[in-house]
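=== RUN LOG ===
request id: a7f3
mode: sequence -> structure
chains: 1
length: 752
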Amino acid sequence: MLIEIDYFKNIFNTVRDAILILDEDMRVVSANRSFFTIFKVDAANTIGFLLNDLGNGQWDIPNLHVLLEDILPKNDTVVDYEIEHTFENIGRKIMLLNACKIREKEDGLPIILLAFEDITERKRLEDLLIESEERYRRIFETASDGIVLLEKQEGKIAYANQAVEIMTGYPNEECIGKKLQDIGISVEMSDFPAIMQQLNKNGIINYDDVVVKTKTGNHIEADIYMVDRAKLAQCNIRDVSERKRAAETLKEEKKFIENALNSMKDVFFVFDLEGRLIRWNETINTVTGYNDKEIALMKPLELLRNNDAWKISKVIQTAAREGSATVDVLLVTKDGRQISYEFRASRLADNTGKLIGIIGVGSDLTERNKLESQLHHSQKMEAVGTLAGGIAHDFNNILNVILGYGGMIMDTLETGCPSKEHMREVLIAADRAAELTKRLLVFCRKQDVEVKPVNINGLILGLQNMLSRIIIESIEFDLYLADRPLIVLADAGQIEQVLINLATNAKDAMPEGGRLTISTSLEELDEAYVAAYGYGMPGRYALIAVADTGQGMEETTQQKIFEPFFTTKGIGEGTGLGLAICYGIIKQHSGFIKVYSEPGKGTLLKIYLPLGEEAACPDKKTAVAVPVMGGNETVLVAEDNASLRTLTRIVLESFGYRVISAVDGEDAITKFTENSESIGLALLDMIMPKKNGKEVSDAIIKVNPGVKVLFSSGYTMDIIKSEGSSAIDFDFIHKPYPPKDLLIKVREILDR
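=== RESULT ===
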């Protein structure tokens, strides 16, 4: 019996739950070791105390007495009772109470066993689990991805969320019991057990680029990943159609940008703050000759001439600070060539505005520099032409005086007089000087041309014999003319002069002999040609090509050959006006002339003349000799050159006219205003100080609308009209003019 008591006592004390033995008054008879441990009390404050008195009354657990009293009369009744109560030493706990009547004492009074199990942590975990399941359920139902739960045995659908219906068109009730293939998801799952084995092993399986056929027959692209969920396999189905389209669009845009960058004539590159090239277009490869692998190992400064490195460093600093900057540098190619480039640097920043690199764009300046050089040359030629025109104008006044007085003296000398022969030589020299001024005016395009339809082929054939006589016997002369007429509007004499000058220059370039070739062809220049070469206008042209096999010229000489007085010949061997006059003649005919030459490889000159109408111009009337007659009218002579003014007065007065002289434009207006009733004709120099001839004419016509005006100038009348006069026909006499021509013109106007 003692052994049995010890046995149960050991069991009683080793049970993990706290246990109390109560009598019929709810007084503690005994307590096991776990009770003292769990509730942190000792036997002295427990044994013999009423249950409600434990812990200073804190064991007054609601309804506990009612429960215990209810089981007293009953045998073999076990009652479970869950409470949440605050205990003295251990605080608030959730306890599962287990009570039962274990026996009755000898006097018949009951004894109750009351066990306490602390389920606080278990309840917390259960709540967490419930919360987790609820959260998972909400996520499951509201997820944007379609989620399907599969049974692990056969792969049948146990549940599908709403996103599956939105994606495939199949609601949950139609999905349950079916397989993925049945709702249009084309995932190969014929060996489902093997798939489940793999899932158990790895925990996840991915399926990319799965085609999903919806209930309505549409197709979408999806990515699927399957995860292990204990008894179920969860399949997440993500619609990636939009992402795929966006990726394809991005790919196309990237390709477009790359194609655009690679098709640029400009070089494009991006480098980071450490100076490493991280992006460039194919133009850099083409221009420099370096391949991608070589460029990837380089820095931008390594592509430049050493002396320009500081420029790039400075422009990078400026771009980083101010946003952009520009600099001209020399780009050095792999084979050592140097190309002039303009680099524009721009600041590259991230989304926060932080500097992360520099974008560089480089433009080849070769063509721009070439065009600037052509412009400078053209401006220089225009300036020289203006100077030459001014010289010719003033020189004509001097020649007018020489020819006028010389002619008057010749008329007073008897035949056979030695002085008459001397004066004839003076006049001949003056005529030659007048021809020289005409040549200068041709160069500066201030001499009128007598244009009419000219067949270039016929003109060259007519010159063939003359050109053959110009060149020496050791030079072969060939003609290659177009097989169709090339009609241009031109002054035939001036075009002949151009060809003669060019043939003469070619002969001088081949002192040891060679070949001279003149060819013609029809050329049509389009806008692309004009843009590429920087000269001309789109249209159809007659091309005259004059080529020789002579000494050729270097670049510097080529840039100067059309300048007046420039010559490569020795002193006394050339005037330097030949090619300058050729240049002026061709320009005056709305054409252009280009030279191509290299030292030792000869020279090719190309002349482009615009094609004109083939209709012939009406013939000019044959000049009829007119007798010189005088008169008694009053003539206002406005001329700023004193010598010419005096000569004109003498000539007019010698034939009976009354002359009023004016030294400049304002003087002419004053003199006319004072004598407006008597003046019948105003002889006005076109170029005068204070007011020019046109301004004087406008002023005196207001005073007397019927006054007659005769203009004179070293320039031609068509040039004067183009420089600001009205469209009214004015009478004009070109300087230098013989006295006889002046008298005839004055009489003609007065008698009109």
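=== NOTES ===
The chain has 24 helices and 27 strands.
Residues 570-576, 615-623, 722-728 have pLDDT under 50 and may be disordered.
=== END ===
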